[in-house]
Amino acid sequence: MTSDVNMTSTYSAHTLPQQHQPWYTYSPQNTLELLQTNPETGLSAEAVSQRQQHYGLNEIEETAGRSNWQILLDQFTNVMLIMLIVVAIISGILDIVQLQQGSSKGGVPFKDTIAIFSIVFLNGLLGYLQETRAEKALAALKRLSSPQVQVIRDGQRQEVEAPSLVPGDIILVEAGDQLCADGQILEAANLQIREAALTGEAHAVTKEYHAEGLPEDTTLGDRLNMVFTGTEIIQGRAKVIVTNTAMTTELGKIAEMLQSVENEDTPLQQRMTHLGNILVSGSLIMVGLVIGAGVLKAGWGMLQQLVEISLSMAVAVVPEGLPAVITVTLALGTQRMVKRNALIRKLPAVETLGSVNVICSDKTGTLTQNKMVIQAVETLQGNFHITGNGYEPSGSFFHTDHQTVNLNNYQELHTLLMAGVLCNDAHLSFQEGDWKIMGDPTEGALLVLAGKADLKQSDLESQFPRVREFPFSSERKRMSTICQGNSWPEWIPSQNAPYLMFTKGSPELILQRCHSYQLKDQVYPLTPEDRAKMVEANNGMAKQALRVLGFAYRPLSAIPDAGTDETSEQDLIWLGLVGMMDAPRPEVKAAVIKCREAGIRPVVITGDHQLTAQAIAEKLGISEQGDRVLTGQMLERMSQDELEQQVEHISVYARVSPEHKLRIVRALQKQNKFVAMTGDGVNDAPALKQADIGIAMGITGTDVSKEASDMVLLDDNFATIVAATEEGRVVYTNIRHFIKYILGSNIGEVITIAAAPILGLPGVPLTPLQILWMNLVTDGLPALALAVEPADPNIMRRPPFSPKESIFARGLGLYIVRIGLIFAIVSISLMMWSFDEAQTSGTPDSWKTMVFTTLCIAQMGHAIAARSTTQLAIEMNPLSNPYLWGAVVVTTILQLMLIYVPFLRNFFDTEILTQQQLIICLLFSSIMFVWVELEKIILRLYRKLKG
Length: 947
Prior knowledge:
This protein is of the alpha+beta class.
């Protein structure tokens, strides 16, 4: 562009005209005038300084988050931990009172207080370590926007730091540069920019100077007169006027959206909060009833004993080991997921995956290979389909009737493949165990196609060297290379010419310049019917969302002069069409079928073209032909309420911006959908963070998308999401297993403790320390073993459970209460018998040890029976979970050590049990196992009679 703008570059912030519409809608002339700058001299140093004061540094800004101290303090706002803290303080006060009175509860003062505070601290530390996983998404965004840049200031070309750029700066960019501000193009030469990270488009976008602005509703991917922060120049060069910096850039808007997305608790965290509220409320009610009943029955003289009983009840009702068991269970789940190529960044996401019922997937690199692959070739002799995956140069050629093609019978196809190699600037190479393209992916696809016919780039280029070229430009929409050959292959009717010019580009423009076509090894005049046939073939490929190139060639007797492209690129010989696309991943179609079987709906959300998105979705079974596709322009005209009404019926969204992705995810969540969002680009980050589960690509994903996600796919394989979802369901099922196991015994403990004063028994049957032992060790070890129970084979053939369901849903609450009552009945029965027996045996406190031991051993039988709600223990393979049997044996031995090892006996205030007393404890304990197994038999008979 040649500019006649001649204006001062001085600037005062208050005199700068206001921008009333998007910059891409202005002509470059208007943009220069509004920003008061000169394309040849740029801004003056004074103007830059003033603008920096007005606009600030060109950096992504971060909002202040919680400090580490605040995160740590927040851990102790959990209602169960607060109750334990109160219990520990009251227990310590009672110890002080007893020490002042000259009596003591045991050998070591304050041991209950110390033990409880230790548990509180450990649980708080676990939560703190989980939450202090730093959010680095904004830091990754900063890295995208902070390179060095060439700028014109005071008429001089300078290199400056990106943060110093201001609107109105004139910057110079070329191939290899990373853009660090948004701007409008003033001059461009063969400019191609990779914008996949920002827009989701697979191929490089050709940018160009526009003398006039673009329509206001132009989507981000179609703003060809603009360049954006964080994108990379693949080819060419340009002069650009900076229009937006820092948070006003497209990248800055993404950062702003990231900061506006609030983190919500996962379903598991919500369920645990609900569980804690119920347990604490129930505990306080029972404490009030026990103290009230005790005072009414025995007067205020029993208050201290009643308080001790209440403390034991409070400790008993809180499953102190549950947070640790859940954390370990989730950690084990993450390890299993890593083996299946899914890396979990945020621990609660393991369980959350099991609730997903919608997967919003980006197209590029997620459903597709992010590799341009040629699907079809069309010549006047026939249509050819090509097999193969990715950039690997191996595959076969087939006719539309699936018959294998013998390339020796299609000489014009050989010529077309040769033209694709020699009219090409890309390179195909085998690196680090994989085939990779250096250069434009479109040109790379042509090299792969030729490789499938055993035509090697290195051989052809050395045999037929390039002597001149007419490069591609957005105005010409074509490229030509002139190659020299002493002996052309027999399939090319070269007319003995020493040079051949190969041309590729827009099919319509190439066809206009052709007067003949090659068929086998002969050249024939191109008739109107032939032209119509090729135009129809081109339109058919375009409807299939293929990117189409036309190919032709021309024998030359001499090398044409530079700048003679218009006259040289005439009288061409037509070869045919090549149609290519970013092909679907081979394994995704099967993964989509599994998703539907599991009650999960896949949705495509992409910045790519509508036809491309629709074609990919139909091939994968995500949508059907005729289904409605919603574009970014349509979304712009819709209110959020209108979008919420339609999201359940739309499976494909195309040409969308980051704001649109965020709106779609929020609309789905408003419809009570539990959303997983996959993506790899910067543009996906806000939606990844907003989604219930954000899933980033590990190989092609940007740092920004990974840091904003909950999970990273190490193999970029959509099918891995299905495997991870299965693991999430297994984890949640096992969490329910050990919650019913732990809480059943806790209810039994509470009722047993509460029954003691009501029955008139002296003292507390279980001390807080003994209860902590049960909740952490005799409950904890078997609970961990239940956490690795194998998956139900039908776990992925049912819809996901509602993320809003209570942890007590589907009969679990009734089971816990029922089992708790059985525990209590067994324990109270033993307590009454053992108390009477203890009075005559000379060991008045042995009844407490018998109650303690019975509750612990009964849990072992419960753990064995709790593996399944339908199968009897004898019917299950004992080797399928050897950890459970190991936990039962180890825990039983540890419990016996508390009775028979002197140091432990003194510390835990237990008594030595006789052989007879121990056998009685074991007999009473076995009732628990028998009861649970009988329930299964009764349930089985009921279902048999009913069905």
